[in-house]
Amino acid sequence: MSRVFRGEEPRGPQPGELHEYQSRSMFEEYRGLAIVFAILGVALAAYFIKYILAAPKPTPPVQSVYIESVPPQSKP
């Protein structure tokens, strides 16, 4: 017969035997996803910056030519 059944040992765990449970933080829980989205965000930002810096320069606008109509000369 065990000592617990005879009442010689305490039934519960001794103080300090059990560690208090602490739930994982949101970052610890989804750390892998956070890393993946961070890499995708950096890649997307680099793509847009490259797209903006490498864009072709706009051509200057074509000079418009104004043509004034000349009235026809009347015969004398």
Key features of this structure:
76 residues, single chain, 3 helices, rod-shaped, mainly alpha
Q: Outline of this structure?
A:
With 76 residues, this protein is mainly α. Helices cover 41% and strands 0% of the residues.
Tell me the total number of β-strands.
Answer: 0
The proportion of residues forming helix, as a percent range, comes to 40-55%
Shape: rod-shaped
For the largest beta-sheet, the strand count, sense and barrel status come to: none
Count of helical stretches: 3
Strand content: under 5%
What is the residue-mean pLDDT, rounded to a whole number? Answer: 82
Task: Summarize the helices and strands and which ones pair or pack.
Layout (H helix, E strand, L loop, with lengths): L2 H4 L19 H4 L1 H23 L23
Give a structural overview.
The chain contains three helices and no strands. It is mainly alpha-helical. It has a domain at 20-54. The N and C termini lie far apart (144 Å). The mean pLDDT is 82.
